[in-house]
Amino acid sequence: MAKKVAIIGAGPAGLTAAYLLGKAQQEVVVFEKDPQYVGGISRTETYKGYAFDIGGHRFFSKSKEVEDFWTEILGDEMLERPRSSRIYYNKKFFSYPLVAMEALQKLGIIESGLCVLSYLQAKMFPVKNPTNFEDWVTNQFGKRLFNIFFRTYTEKVWGIPCKEISADWAAQRIKGLSLSSAIWNALFKPKASGGKDKVIKTLIDSFRYPKRGPGLMWETCRDKCIAMGVQVEMNCGAKGVHQEAGKWSITTTDGRTFEGFDHVLSSAPIRELIPSIQPQLEASGYQAAQKLGYRDFLTVVLICKDEDAFDDNWIYIHDPSVKVGRIQNFKSWSPYMVPDPAMACYGLEYFCFEGDGLWTSKDEDLIALATKEMVQIGLTKASAVVDGYVVRQPKAYPVYDHTYKENVEAIREALKPYPGIYLMGRNGMHKYNNQDHSMMTAMLAAKNIIAGEELYDVWNVNEDAEYHEGGLRGEEDTQKVVGRLVPKRVQ
Hints:
The chain is α/β, with parallel strands linked by helices. The chain has three domains: 209 residues, FAD/NAD(P)-binding domain; 105 residues, no CATH class; 105 residues, Polyamine Oxidase, Chain A, domain 2 (Alpha-Beta Complex). It is built from 17 helices and 22 strands. The strands form six sheets. The chain has a seven-stranded mixed beta sheet. Strands 9-2-1-13-20 form a five-stranded parallel beta sheet. Strands 12-11-10-14 form a four-stranded mixed beta sheet.
């Protein structure tokens, strides 16, 4: 018997679930508050024919199930792109991943030697049980390299000292990487035949990418969902989420009410979702949701004459003298993003908090700032900039402070009396993850609904979009067989 499912949010998680449930002939309604775009932070916006991402989004996963999904949606519209990125530090550009001889030369023999000594010291006298970002990274790279290549950029991203950021974020985002592994990668490049599951994600040298940006993936997915009978409501946020007598209803921001849902799948920010649920959660869960933090950011798009072209997909800016944190080169992501081959399109990313000085600046002031900083870094001339555009993205990153984990756990506990609701995706679970992780949580929720029983706990998807049974540890416990997930009931 078909279930009726409400999905809040038409990002990667929401549309993945909608597509799979639609294929299984379930009755699905998707609620998306944006009036125009689907894809969430993985959308692609356009301005005068130029296309640009909200941050760059590589399509690379260790999960065959996710890779197969992308292929099923877009097929030949996916490009294989070379990865090219650098770090800007001390008025010099460093290749990233590390090129050993280049790094030695640009840091200088003395500084390089001090970095190695600092690394050896960290290995001999590591911080035991590191709980914050600074201590975790120092254990992996040494204090000196932490200060050179991690502190400035990380504090730009989060707006708080590295000591106040949970070590969970470092362990998740740079898993498996240390100074020794980075040098080994630089000197002895891993063979492609090693398999995706052996690759450190941050060191991959190629990835797939939709011809006209990640939005193409999710716009196509939406269209295929609609063709299967999925109802997609745009400009229609979920204002109220009400459970009564085992059924759910959704009251939308335009005043309508949709009733009779068996399940609700939400990728909305937890801090926004929890107050909308009725009956109201117990106080501990409700209050925990209000304590969760978010980091916002804005992208200043500069359309320039392609006079000083650089090949990088993106550049990390580790220089405290400028406010920009990262620069995207959309033409290097895909030439289809830029309609005129004589032009280039760059995205300068500024991390901020919604409502602060950067966020509330006038667009023309932000475009002037971005132009000044591009010139200061040496990536273009002011005379080459012909136009600009600003995109603001609230709640781009869930903050990993020292209390986020206990707050999320309190919310999970408080939701137990509300059967039929699933949290999924980045903001839906307050997990700083990549889109393949978001998609896998949606895939498992959809599998549970289709099966009519709880085969999987969506919270047991790790950062590599692999499913682990609760309480188990180690590679041998990963519940996979040739890329196919194994349900609990057949263990």
